[in-house]
Amino acid sequence: MLSFWYKGRLWTEEDLKQLTGIKALNLMFDDDPGFRIQAFFGKPPYVYDDFNIKVTSKYFTHFYMRISLFSMRIENLLIVSSGAKQYIMEYCIKEQVESAIKLNFSTIELIAERSDKPVRTIYDSAKIDFMNGYKVWGRYGFVMYLSSRKQRFQNLMHDKDCSDINAIHEIYGKSTQAKRAKAVWNIDGFSWEGRFDLKKESDSYRILYKTI
């Protein structure tokens, strides 16, 4: 079992496992996911800085992430649901967020991809028929943090008569305009860079727990 000291704290393999959020699968569905770590050596006196992690589970066809202890940042590199359970990602994201907050991480980041044709992943060369993260991750508290992406999103909503919609999470609302905006986004949406702010008063946290 991996364990090491970093910046005055003892870290264990269990800490890294909790940061994936997959503990939710075991607690709720009695699923014991596979877990593989690739550690990268940092500069002395630190033993490790970054970790690439692969998770195997019947609930996901692909699950790759990176944990940086140097920047206290998590990257969800590629997560694709197998479709075996609806809303499985919500359970895992909530578990990941709560674990990351306890361990004093600052952000979780990802690229919410769109691809309408088969693509091969750079992680295992497997083929994915399509990628629809662009219309999924906004539901779970990831926000567009690049001003150019936010402006492009707002321009699209304005052009499609959905000018009341200013942020990606708003398309999941129950209003008539929100439903129209979601339909527009499903057709005309694009890949975007997402960030989850791990402060409990953040918009990200409030979106995830539906208090905004």
Describe this structure as you would to a colleague.
- With 212 residues, this protein is of the alpha+beta class.
- Helices cover 28% and strands 31% of the residues.
- The protein has one domain (3-144, 191-205).
- The chain is built from six helices and 13 strands.
- The strands form four sheets. A seven-stranded mixed sheet has the order 3-4-5-6-7-13-12. The protein has a two-stranded antiparallel sheet with strand order 1-2. A two-stranded antiparallel ribbon has the order 8-11.
- The longest helix is centred in the middle third of the chain and has 15 residues, at 88-102.
- 29% of the residues are buried.
- The model has no long low-confidence stretch (mean pLDDT 92).
Total strands: the figure is 13
Q: For the residues shown, what is the average pLDDT?
A: 92
Kindly report how far apart the N and C termini lie: 41 Å
Q: Structural class from helices and strands?
A: alpha+beta
Q: How many independent structural domains?
A: 1
Percent of residues in beta strands: 25-35%
- Poorly predicted runs: none
User: Which percent range fits the helix content?
Assistant: 25-40%
**Tally of alpha and pi helices:** 6
Report the biggest beta sheet as strand number plus sense, adding barrel if it closes.
7 strands, mixed
Cα gyration radius (Å): 18 Å
What's the overall geometry? globular
Q: What strand line-up does the widest sheet have?
A: 3-4-5-6-7-13-12
Order of helices and strands: EEHHEEEEHEEEEEEHHEH
